[in-house]
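Q: Convert this sequence to structure tokens.
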Amino acid sequence: MKDKYDVIIVGAGPAGSTAAFFLVNKFNRNVLLIDKAKFPRDKPCGGYLTSRVFKRFNYLCSEIDAIVEVPTYGSYFYGPDLSKLEWIKEIPVGYLVLRTKFDNYLKDLAVSHGVKFIEGSKVVDLLVKEEAAKVVVDNGNTYIADIIIGADGARSEIAKKSKIYEKSDSLNKGLCVVNEFRVSEEFLDEIYGKNRPTHYFYGFENIIGYSWVFPKRTHLNIGIGGPSSSGRELGKKFSKFLNYLREINFLPDSIKLTSRFKAAMIPTSLALYLNRSYSDRVLVVGDALGVVSSVSGEGIYQSMASGEDAAIAANYALTELKFDSSFLQRYEKIWKKDLASELKTFGNIMQLGSSEKKDELLEKMRIFF
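A:
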């Protein structure tokens, strides 16, 4: 029989790498982490971390300068009529990162504590037996473990193969298009200020969603998010948003406006609609679980939190040697106690984008800071 791991984690984003780190560093488990990409790799995302990331995962604090591009000291919120609400503080309320750097750091941290990492290998099949679970990768290799954690994104193969996803679950996913432009630090200091506030535009061009502008140290991250059904229309509105930003001098003339952008599925509050987040020998975390906030699009904190929650549940199962779904349902209780309240709070928050509800929108946003 091939070497058997305690846990195999599919996907080395923030959720997968955090689960791997806790399983090895806190629980001394034998863990294999697999990702289809070669690292470092980028991911379509705003790259916004709320301050609670460092409060909860305080082991990252000593490396904050290596992880973070700039702190941000607040936000501006714009309604459909472009009226503005200001929320600026004297201390950082969040941090802006490059996902290429941030995700690679979390992966390296897990590996440095003993996690085995295989990159450039896509998991194409999952086989769950009474005695163990097995994943098959695209080069034909197989790997065996007691538990599989699916951290492989909004289109999770692990969730599909384990029957955690149902066809209707695709209805609870959004879509975002995003581009990150290289911009001079001088321009960003002059236009956005050294306190680097983030900018949220709710209902721009009547979208059911919002657009954002995140000014980093030498990058400008711009995106727009809406329902998955918006498809090509969202891309057209993204182009209009870029033109609008140029008109108000938020984009330098040196940046060539292009119709090219990156797109990604956003599982906003999908976790609340899943029939379950576990099956025999399988748990799902992060975007595979669907814990992205529907109001801010924040998902990194929630992904890392679900990764820690899954590590706790997996360790308990390994201690008790019980891997059936009736036992692993404890994981759902753990993550719901941790995250479900805020996901419910923001389930219909997009309705607060109108100017007459700006104060209510701001009040709802306070949970993040």
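Residues 4-368 form a domain with the FAD/NAD(P)-binding domain fold (CATH 3.50.50.60).
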